[in-house]
Amino acid sequence: MATSGPSFAMADFLAGITHAVRPGRQRPLVVHDKDLELIPAGSVPNPTTLRVAGTLPTATFELFRQVIPPGESSDMQRHYHETVHFVISGDGHSEIEGADAVTWTTGSFVYTPPWAWHRHYNDSAKHPAEFLTIENSRLLGLFGLARRQSAGLATLAEARARFDDQEEK
Length: 169
Description:
Keywords: Dioxygenase, Oxidoreductase. By secondary structure, the protein is an alpha+beta fold. The chain has 3 helices and 11 strands, in the order H-E-E-E-E-E-E-E-E-E-E-H-E-H.
C-alpha cells in the first residue's frame, strides 16, 4: 500500500486505520514536569537549561523543556533536524539564518529549519523565557543522519566563518 505519491489510494489508506492502538509497555505514557531529566550543565554546548522527556515512548522525535535566563541566549547552532519551539512563557527574538530576526512571545511557535544557523534570545532583563522544544532528531538518528554544530555564543557571521572554513578543508 502506497502512503503517498501517484499510487496512493484513499480506500487502502482508510482500510489500514484501526480503532485500537496499543502502545508498548516498555515506557510510561505520561511524564510529569517533575520527572523530566536535566541535561547536566556543560554536557552540551547550549548554555540554557534543558530537561528532556526521555522516557516517553517517542521513536521519531524528542521533547525538551528549555529555559533561557533573563537577558541571555542559547548558543549559535545548526543541525540536520527540524525544530519547533512553543513559547510557554517569555518574550524574545530569534536569529535564524536566511531570515530577518523574528520576535516571539508567550504562545508563539518558532520554527527552525534544517541546517540553518540560529540562536534564541530572551529580551527580558527580569524573567526567564521558557520553551517546549520538539525536534525530529530521533528520526534522523535512526537513519544515521544526526549532525549538530555549535559555535557557542558567536555571532552568525563568526559561526559561518569558522565552520565554513572547516568544511572546505
